Structure to design on (436 residues):
């Protein structure tokens, strides 16, 4: 992403904070997988959003109006030996020349430098509770300033939650952000098609997952969350990630997988018959979910409410389940009593962005949020009929269907970022096994 994008974001935040404020953001920690092996490092989304800096052991500081520099970065020093083992480090000098910091210091010196800068400020913008060790460090600095100053010394006397304004900024995607999300959606759609094309009875779920990993890595991206590849009864487990079962003739397969391109996620689900032909009950459920998906999609436009797509999807799913005899009673009563929740137990979508379940409030002052251009959300109705579900005839059991797409709210409606990937059941049937 262009460095100007990060500097624009910092300016936007600093304008909101005003003079006399300081924002402090620690980088994400390295997480150990086992003994001396770490998980793949992923920068903290808020930290990356404002810095574009991808290294651990860093702290970003924003001080609007500070004459000696408004954007300070504490980071690891260059170290020939460590870099031989673990790879490149920018170091403070390049943090300035290449990463846009006004000034930069070794992270080891933060105790000596940062308290003196905090001391000059009235308000601290900081997100508590994400990095407990750093919380303690910051509280220690502020406490020391209090003890030192008595009644005469200057010190900040206000803590403000940084995540609140920052997450509201992140909810509205810029042109650069939607470009990244389009790319994530395109690669993801290609991976889904690739998986469909090789799908057949006898394969293991992990062989489907492997198609995603192959398509992701050949495009230099990674998964934005662990792929969910659930066949047969596993299609009814919402966050199934074992992906270990051998797929059988007659199974339905639910695949929920998306990649992350340049820190922006796609989140996409398709459900299809392993052998390329829906059974009659599978197709009946599929068509109800597809109709719910269309009804939800039709509500997405500026001025609509966040909850409209969900309400629309619930109405269609309830009506469909009643038509199929899976719910009984007057329709309005079934809708009011949320009878469909037994089969459709999650919401119809969520914000999407740097995080899969992205940040941003869904309500403002207890009212559902009004949709505005630049917001990106998923649309993902589903019906899940787990084996053994009480009062449900056997022919429906073991059918789990979800259809999930990524949608950008535009000035005059919406744009489906994942439109390259078919949803129509006939087209899906034609795609399954097409490479065999
Ligand atoms: N992949 C998680 C979700 O669909 O929300
Ligand atoms: Mn989702
Ligand atoms: Mn998903």
């Amino acid at each position: 992403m262009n460095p100007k994008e990060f500097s624009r974001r910092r300016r936007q935040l600093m304008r909101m904070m005003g003079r006399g404020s300081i924002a402090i953001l620690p980088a994400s920690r390295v997480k150990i997988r086992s003994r001396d092996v770490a998980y793949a490092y992923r920068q903290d989304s808020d930290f990356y959003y404002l810095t574009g800096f991808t290294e651990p052991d860093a702290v970003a500081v924003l001080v609007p109006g500070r004459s000696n520099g408004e954007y300070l970065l504490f980071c690891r020093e260059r170290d020939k030996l460590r870099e031989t083992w673990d790879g490149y480090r920018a170091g403070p000098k390049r943090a300035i020349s290449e990463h846009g910091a006004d000034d930069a210091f070794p992270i080891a010196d933060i105790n000596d430098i940062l308290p003196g800068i905090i001391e000059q400020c009235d308000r601290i913008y900081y997100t508590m509770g994400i990095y407990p060790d750093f919380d303690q460090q910051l509280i220690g600095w502020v406490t020391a300033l209090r003890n030192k100053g008595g009644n005469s010394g200057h010190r900040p006397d206000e803590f403000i939650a940084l995540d609140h304004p920052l997450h509201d900024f992140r909810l509205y995607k810029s042109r650069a952000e939607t470009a990244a999300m389009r790319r994530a959606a395109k690669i993801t759609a290609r991976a889904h098609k690739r998986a469909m094309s090789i799908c057949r009875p006898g394969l293991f779920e992990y062989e489907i997952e492997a198609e995603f990993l192959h398509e992701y890595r050949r495009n230099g991206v990674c998964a934005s969350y662990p792929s969910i590849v659930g066949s047969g009864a596993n299609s009814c487990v919402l966050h199934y990630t074992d992906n270990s079962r051998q797929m059988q003739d007659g199974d339905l397969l639910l695949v929920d997988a998306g990649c992350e391109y340049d820190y922006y996620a796609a989140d996409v689900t398709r459900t299809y018959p392993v052998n390329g032909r829906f059974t009659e009950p599978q197709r009946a459920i599929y068509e109800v979910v597809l109709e719910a998906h269309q009804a939800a999609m039709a509500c997405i436009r500026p001025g609509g409410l966040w909850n409209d797509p969900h309400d629309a999807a619930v109405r269609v799913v309830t009506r469909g389940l009643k038509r199929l005899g899976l719910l009984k009673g007057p329709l309005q009563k079934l809708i009011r009593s949320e009878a469909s929740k037994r089969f459709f137990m999650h919401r119809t979508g969520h914000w999407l962005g740097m995080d899969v379940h992205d940040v941003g409030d869904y309500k403002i002052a207890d009212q559902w949020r009004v949709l505005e251009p630049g917001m990106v959300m998923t649309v993902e109705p589903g019906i899940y009929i787990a084996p053994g579900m009480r009062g449900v005839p056997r022919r429906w059991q073991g059918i789990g269907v979800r259809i999930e797409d990524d949608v950008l709210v535009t000035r005059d409606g919406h744009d489906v970022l994942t439109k390259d990937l078919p949803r129509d059941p006939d087209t899906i049937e034609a795609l399954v096994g097409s490479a065999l």
